[in-house]
Amino acid sequence: MNKPLLNKYADQTAMLVAIDCIVFGFDGENLKILLIKRGFEPAKDQWSLMGGFVGKGEDLEAAAGRVLFELTGLNNVYLEQLKTYGEPLRDPYARTVCVAYFAFIDIKKYQNQLSDEYHAEWFQIDEAPQLIFDHNEMVEEARKRVRYKAALHPILFELLPQKFTIPQLQNLYEQVYATRIDNRNFIRKVTSTGLLIKLQEKDKSGSKRGAFYFKLDKKKYKAKFQSFLNFIPNPDQLLG
Amino acid sequence: MNKPLLNKYADQTAMLVAIDCIVFGFDGENLKILLIKRGFEPAKDQWSLMGGFVGKGEDLEAAAGRVLFELTGLNNVYLEQLKTYGEPLRDPYARTVCVAYFAFIDIKKYQNQLSDEYHAEWFQIDEAPQLIFDHNEMVEEARKRVRYKAALHPILFELLPQKFTIPQLQNLYEQVYATRIDNRNFIRKVTSTGLLIKLQEKDKSGSKRGAFYFKLDKKKYKAKFQSFLNFIPNPDQLLG
DNA sequence: ACAAAAGTGTTAGTTCTACACCCATGT
DNA sequence: ACATGGGTGTAGAACTAACACTTTTGT
Fold it and tell me: How many distinct helices (H) and strands (E) make up chain B?
C-alpha cells in the first residue's frame, strides 16, 4: 500500500501471518499425516507441520496452495480452512498469527523426491512425534474436524484414488473413526447415495475373488456434497 | 519480541491483524444483526461490522471479546471463530488479515446507551445496508454457518433469555431457517432432548392463555452440545 | 361468545441396526 | 479342497413427518 497510514491504522502492531497445513493421506491401510523436519530456527530440525508465511500480495488460500505445491508437487488438492491461531507467544521468535488449513491428498500421487529438501515423512497419526509450537493442537483439531465433517459429508473420497473399492472405502472410514463398521450396512449406505459408479474392473490385490472398482459420480458428488449423508452410525459417540 | 529476527523471519511482510464480529440478536420476533457506523477513515460513516485490531500481546479471541464488550457492555458472550479473510486488497488502506467471529447475545441485555459512540443499530438481516469491504460476505457466511450448526446443535438457546417459552423458541428456529415448523413435532423434539426444565410461571404477553416458561438444564446442555440433535426437518434443503 | 394462541396423539412411512451365510477365486 | 476376503437379505426397532382438534382465558 502506498498511501500514508491513517491515525487509526498507524498505531497498530503489525504481525507476521503464516499458514500451516495438516496434510492427510491414506495408503489403503492407515490414515497418515505428512510432517517435515523444520529447516530453520527457531526449533530447527524438529518435526513440524508444513507451513510458510503469507506473502505481501498473496491471499491466504493461495499461500496454502503454494506451500502444498512446494511440498508435494501437487496442485488441485482438497484444502479447507481449519482455524486461526493467534496466541501471542505461540511462536517464540516473533508474533505470528497462523491460519491452519487441512488438506487431503491421494497418497499415491505424492512425489517423495520432490520434498527431499523438507525431509518430509508420513506418520501414522497415533505414532506422530512431538511437534513444534502449537502444531500438535492443530493436528488434534484437524482430526476432530475431519471426523465431524466426514460423518455428514462425502469428504473422505478426496483421500482415495479415482478408482477404489468399497472395502477400501470402508477401511478408510474405520481408520478415521477407529471403529468397526458392519459391511452390509455400509455398502447399503454408500450405494444408496448414488455417488458411486461401478466399474467392470476388479482389484485383485486384496483378495482372490477381487473387489469391483468404483469411481465417483462427479456431478452427484458436487450436488450432494452439502447434504447430510449420515455415513457413520451413532456419530455422536465417535466425535469426542 | 526483543530477540533479533532470524533470516527466515526477517524477509517477511508484517501485516495488520483485525477481528470483526457478526453479532446476532433475537428480539422475540426477528433475527437481527448489530452494525455500527464506522467512525474513521477509510469508509468513515459507512455501515460496518464491529471490529478492531488485535493488540500487541493480545490473543485473537480476547480481542473479539474486548471489542464486544466495548460495543455492548456484555461479557461472557457466546463467541465462535467463523473464518479468516485475507484477500490482499480487502482493506484498501493497509494489508489487513481479518479473523471473523460470530456472537450471539440476548438482545434484551444489550445496553444501547453504551454504544452511542459507535452509532450501533440492530438490523433485520434482510434489511441490512451495504457494508464496507468484505463484510457483507462475512455476514452471509455467518448466516450459513449458524443455519448449519443450529440444525445439529442447540446453539440458538444462546440467543434467548434465561426464561423462554417454546413458542418463542420455535419462532426463533423459524426465523433462522425462514421456514414454518409443525409445532407438535417441534415440541416433541425439544422436550425429548431433556434439555428443558419447565417452570411454573407463564408468559402472558403473547396470548391470553399464556405459555409456560422453560429454562435450560445447563448440565445437560453442556453434555449434549456436541451431539447431533436434528431439530430441523430435512435440513439439507434449507442450508443453501 | 368468541378470538387467538397453547398444547396435545396417532399413524403410516422410512430409516436404522443387528445379524449369518453363500460366492468367487487362487493356491 | 480349502482358505480368504467379497458380496448379499431380512426383520424388529426407532425415528420422522404429516395431520386437526381441544383448552384456556381476556375481551
Answer: 6, 10
Cα B67 from chain centroid (whole Å): 13
- Helices marked H in chain B: 7-10, 60-72, 135-150, 166-177, 183-192, 218-224
Task: Identify the band that residue B1 occupies on the pLDDT scale cut at 50, 70 and 90.
Answer: very low
Task: Enumerate domains of chain B plus CATH numbers.
Answer: 15-149 (3.90.79.10), 157-238 (1.10.10.10)
Q: Does B79 contact A at CB distance below 8 Å?
A: no
Contact B109, B74 (CB under 8 A): yes
Q: Is B53 on the interface with A (CB under 8 A)?
A: yes
For residue A3, what pLDDT is reported? 53
Instruction: Please compute, for residue A64, the number of CA atoms within 13 A of its CA located in the half-sphere on the CB side.
Output: 24
What is the per-residue pLDDT for A233?
84
Determine the distance in angstroms separating the CA of A204 from the nearest CA of chain B, rounded to an integer: 38
The reply to whether omega before A42 is within 30° of 0 (cis) is yes
Q: Exposed (0-12), middle (13-18) or buried (19+): which is B149, by Cβ within 10 Å?
A: middle
